[in-house]
Fold:
Amino acid sequence: MKKRDIARRTIRDDRFDLCIIGGGATGLGCALDAQLRGKRTVLVEAGDFISQTSSASTKLVHGGVRYLQIAAASLDYGQFRMVRKALQERRHMLEAAPYLAHPVELLVPCFSAWEQFYYGAGLKAYDVIAGKARIFPSRILSRRLTLERLPALRRDRLFGAVTYADGQFDDARYGMALAQSFARLNGELLNYTRVVDMERDRDGGLTGVVVEDMLSGERFSIAARVTLNCTGPFSDHIRQMANPSLPSRLRLSKGIHILLPMQAMRGDAALLIPKTEDGRLIFALPWNGSLLVGTTEDEIASDEEAAANAKEIEYLLRYVNRYLDMRWTPADVQSVFAGVRPLVASAGNGNTQRLIRDHEIEVDRRSGLVSVLGGKWTTYRAMAEDGVNAALRVCGDAPVPARTLRYPLDGSEGYCSGYWQKLAGRHGISDPTAEHLAQKFGARSQEILSLIESDPSLAAPLCAGSPAIAAEVVYSVREEMAQTIEDVLARRIGVQFHNLQQARAAAPAVGERMAVELGWTAQQTTQAIAEYQARIDRLLRLAGLPPASLGPSAAGPELDLKGPGEDHAGLHRSH
Ligand SMILES: Cc1cc2nc3c(=O)[nH]c(=O)nc-3n(C[C@H](O)[C@H](O)[C@H](O)COP(=O)(O)OP(=O)(O)OC[C@H]3O[C@@H](n4cnc5c(N)ncnc54)[C@H](O)[C@@H]3O)c2cc1C
Structure:
């Protein structure tokens, strides 16, 4: 990826075929697709890449067993079609970046023979719908085998289980791999750049966008033949900026996740709690050494802040303690994050839980804006294909087939299973660090390790208890356009998603390294560290969790938490 200043100059002075607004899964997917079809493409993102919904998912690459359940119960062909499409895309996602996505076996506990039959039949249907894209077949497990697979499961009344396969991935890093793949094909992209207005011709057709650089305050125009709106939960805002007469289409639904210590699980099986009192599913998934539990679902207004609260955390803990032999309390929660599902409203669907997670491509005839609405992470590639097809039609260009299917994403070439063992021992890094680098950066880990050759101090850990090292900070700034401490600790190296205490403790080390790379003054560095720590403290306070530390900002005055264009520690949707 280019340095941010250089990218900004190129974007300001150039002309583009496609301008993509939004650097989440949808926008980055569209950008890669368009560039691969030979179209000169630019992407602008108001905050950091992948900083909103796309880094707050359950991290499942799935068709969605719940949607299949809804499809069967209500004979809803739309839900069924969506599950089938997602199962085909699941295969692509697993193959395109094997270091970031892998199969996972989920265990559904059953408390009677009837339940086992019911779930067993449903999951067989899931296998059948996947067809050739099936990962491995679902299985019926006896009570004994169930407890062998998941010893922490509550034993009382347990009859057995059904297991089935889906995919699991690292959403933030998957997004970064899309961004890097796009940049390496000479695509242009810029974070902290918000679209604030549109450029139009005399007939009202869009000829580009006006953006504001959220770091420098500079405003400039970007010329493009067609504009794609890929802003997820913010899509209505952009649609109405292009054409104020368009009615709103989205329903927004918040979901939170918590991270718990994995050691207590005594095993690595993933659990699906098939039914809550409010008719939901809850997942408890091993994820890079922690247990990821989620999610909730509550409709929220477009101007409401999406932050996790104590009630939602209590809800998740209640279910996980009910199914597992645990007594977890809020004090055990290592981290928490919240995201907003951008669901496309359809007539007659009162409840957001029942709204189809399918996508829709809307072309506004007046302005020519193409909006890619709704969808799921799993179907990002198919959404991009449909979105770019529509954009080419708006431009009047001859159709060009998409080339994203089986296109290996950045970091995949040269990666193989057992890759981390090859890294271990080099440059004095530990096994956990080698594993962490391989899981986050794939074959690009070599570039991080080569930084240590010229500066051995970069092998230093960022904080006690975390495998992350200083070289990752340097790489994130030089190669991945990281601009803030949160960009590094959350999206680039993932410490924040796993453990807020560790992220808070790592902030000074990250800040000092970033200061050298970005030329921050001592005062700017101190302020960046204090602001980041205050964000973490506020996130904990809103979630009703114990404070991270008694460091200065925990006790100090409340800081303005919203930097220009920045979104923050799990507090999404600052637009
Ligand atoms: C709780 C939860 C769990 C989920 N779990 C799963 C799962 O397990 N598997 C799955 O497949 N899917 C899952 N999803 C769905 C999936 O995460 C989303 O469908 C997907 O991430 C949406 O991506 P997006 O790019 O459309 O939106 P976003 O990721 O929100 O990206 C939109 C971007 O547009 C930017 N933007 C907004 N306004 C502007 C502007 N004016 N100028 C420039 N940029 C702008 C925003 O800053 C943002 O980064 C889940 C969603 C939630 C909320």
